[in-house]
Amino acid sequence: MARKIFSSFHYKPDNWRAATVRSIGAIEGNKLASDNDWESVTSGGDPAIEKWIAEQMKGTSCVVVLVGANTAGRKWINYEIKKGWSDGKGLLGIHIHNLLDRDKKQSAKGNNPFIGFTLGDDKKDLSSIVKTYDPRYSTSTDVYNCIRDNIVEWIEEAIRIRNNH
Questions:
Q1: What pLDDT is recorded for position 29?
Q2: Domain boundaries, the chain
Q3: Which of 6, 41, 50, 106 lies deepest, with the highest CB count within 10 Å?
């Protein structure tokens, strides 16, 4: 049975890439919001967005941050990372910059979104615990195949890591 995950990503530039990863079929995840759905959610302000995220994360075991050029440091990405960790979910990042978007273009590699998150009294950086994968290939097909071939194990490892912290 496929694990149910929450996909975290920068919507406008990366929704096509996120849908590509979701099409792999080895995972179940939150339904990607359409532009109209997302506009409806955001029109309710921060409380409505937080409620939507909580609903989407319900019943998931892992938060998979799909890292594009400008994912790191975004308000709602940070919120999803913090919520996922505090809810005891596995966390992992996958760089998706070399997957093609709807215009058949790749993007620049983004920064690790887990850098700067500290944990507990010892202020341990989350990036030293959570793994972020960067498929070493430059063609979209090879990146897709790498993610397809490894995502299940990456998710299982993220859950194991979280269970140990």
A1: 63
A2: 3-163
A3: 6
Dihedral of alpha carbons 50, 56, 58, 64, sign: negative
pLDDT tens, 26-61? Answer: 676 655 555 557 778 888 899 999 999 999 999 999
| DSSP for 47-99, written as a single string | HHHHHHHHHHHTT-SEEEEEE-TT-TT-HHHHHHHHHHHHTT-EEEEEE-TTS
Token pair for residue 73? 């440091």
- Other C-beta atoms closer than 10 Å to the C-beta of 62 total 23
pLDDT at position 123 is 84
- Cβ neighbours for 63, distance < 8 A, ≥ 6 positions apart: 5, 6, 8, 57, 80, 81, 83, 84, 89, 90, 91, 92
Strand bridging mode 118-119 / 131-133: unpaired
Rounded to an integer, what distance in angstroms lies between the CA atom of residue 122 and that of residue 124? 6
Q: Which of 160, 8, 165, 29 is nearest to 81 (CA)?
A: 8
| AA letter at 16 | W
Q: What share of the chain is helix, strand, coil (3-state, %, to 5)?
A: 45, 15, 40
The pLDDT mean for the chain works out to: 91
What's the topology of domain 3-163? Rossmann fold (3.40.50)
